[in-house]
Prior knowledge:
Order of helices and strands: HHHHH
Number of domains: 1
Helix content: 55-70%
Radius of gyration: 14 Å
Low-confidence stretches: none
Structural class: mainly alpha
Distance between the termini: 20 Å
Shape: globular
Strand content: under 5%
Largest sheet: none
Mean pLDDT: 90
Number of strands: 0
Amino acid sequence: MTTTTPHTQINLDDFYAHLRDTYAELFVTDPDYAFSASKITPDALARKMTLGLAAGTANKDGKAIRSTCSHFSIPHTYKAIRAFFDQR
């Protein structure tokens, strides 16, 4: 029997939390995010985008995602983001 390390989602949770906080700031300070701010909460948008990035279906080119990648010192690529989520 092989022993495996249990999968965790600590990095995904940390990415989500930073992304949520970044959206909250951008919703207040950046006019480019005014429409989003009128339609969705920072929490809901961060959840949607984090799960979409994990699945490879979300657009990674927004300011908040770029900022979050920079915060965690990960390259701004789908492959690097998913690898960060999957780290144990």
